[in-house]
Amino acid sequence: MAGGRRLMARDGARPSYDPAGPDHALRAALQDLRTGRWMAMRTLLAETTPWWQWTQRTQVLAAAAAGTDVVRAWLTEEPDSAHAVVMHARVGVERALRARRERHRRTHELWIEAWDAAQTATVAAPRDPVPWVCLLALAQLDPEQRWEEHRAAAPEPMLPPGPWGLLAEADRRDPFNREAHHRMLQFLYARGGSGRLAEAAGYAQWAAGQAPPGSALHLLPLYVRVERYRRDSGHDAALDLHWVVEEADREARRALHSWFERTDPAERALPDLNHLAHALWGALKFADAARVFEAIGPYFTPPPWMYRTPDRDRAVEVFVQARDRCRAAAEGSRP
């Protein structure tokens, strides 16, 4: 089946967005969850051991469960389950962040509930990085940094105060945890202002510089570049040069060589693959981008492609055009 999907993708079929991507076990648990059942989720998480996979699966499951009472039913049935406690925190965080985006009147209440649930999870699962990732995610709801834990001194003098203690706790349990560092970026974005975006760029470069070969943190500068483009779209006539300047080219090549070529294909997150393909395509590195498109296969993620068109529903068309252009260039360069 996987080979058939890959063939379809190479033949030019439109890719699809699927939060589970190639993780078929996760997809099955999601389908079960959407019917109001939690046993498949419970079994899947019991079988999930690497922290990178645990972090990824709990995030995707929480996004699907946030509009339901499935996790609450699980926790009620098994109140001593550390996995259920962690998922309860995950769902609480997802609801609080959604409420903030929608400017819901219960945002503060949901925030406090999620914070309490995450604190409980740090006790129930003391070796798990995810409860600390949850607390980091909630930090973006405090852009004024009124909470003391959100204004700790940075480990580097050029970086701003922030939830560094929370990041350190996540890193202590899972060094270079991908989501933890993305949550830190989101906190820096939430502080607002063009100067603050420069802080985010500095942070991304610092984190990537600390990361070992194969770490997904090498892609952080690509995410910041997309965020800058998103904010400037429609206001800057020079945006076409945004992707081909020397710095953008260097960031794309560094991510290719330090991450894509040095990590296990099973550990590559779809958003990372899409951001790398997008960066290489924008930097006119078509042959290299074609390799990444091949790794993406029949799936895609709307960001970053949705920011390259005024009509965000046409993101998949931008993706397909970029993929086909890169494949054609790569095939034309072969002897």
Write a structural description:
This is DUF4034 domain-containing protein. It comes from Streptomyces corchorusii. This protein is mainly alpha-helical and 335 residues long. It folds into two domains: 170 residues, Serine Threonine Protein Phosphatase 5, Tetratricopeptide repeat (Alpha Horseshoe); 139 residues, no CATH class. 64% of the residues lie in helices and 0% in strands. α4 packs across α6, α6 runs antiparallel to α7 and α7 packs antiparallel against α8.
| Gross CATH architecture of the largest domain | Alpha Horseshoe
Number of DSSP E strands:
0
Amino- and carboxy-terminal Cα gap:
31 Å
Average pLDDT for all residues: 92
* Computed CA radius of gyration, to the nearest angstrom: 20 Å
Briefly, what CATH class of the largest domain? Mainly Alpha
Largest sheet: none
DSSP summary: helix tally: 17
Order of helices and strands: HHHHHHHHHHHHHHHHH
List keywords for this structure.
0% strand; Serine Threonine Protein Phosphatase 5, Tetratricopeptide repeat; DUF4034 domain-containing protein; 2 domains; mainly alpha; disordered N terminus
Secondary-structure blueprint:
Elements: H1 2-10, H2 24-34, H3 39-46, H4 51-65, H5 70-77, H6 82-101, H7 107-124, H8 130-138, H9 164-173, H10 178-190, H11 194-210, H12 220-232, H13 246-260, H14 270-282, H15 286-296, H16 302-305, H17 315-333
Helix pairs in contact: 2-3, 2-4, 4-6, 5-6, 6-7, 6-8, 7-8, 8-9, 8-10, 10-11, 11-12, 13-14, 14-15, 15-17
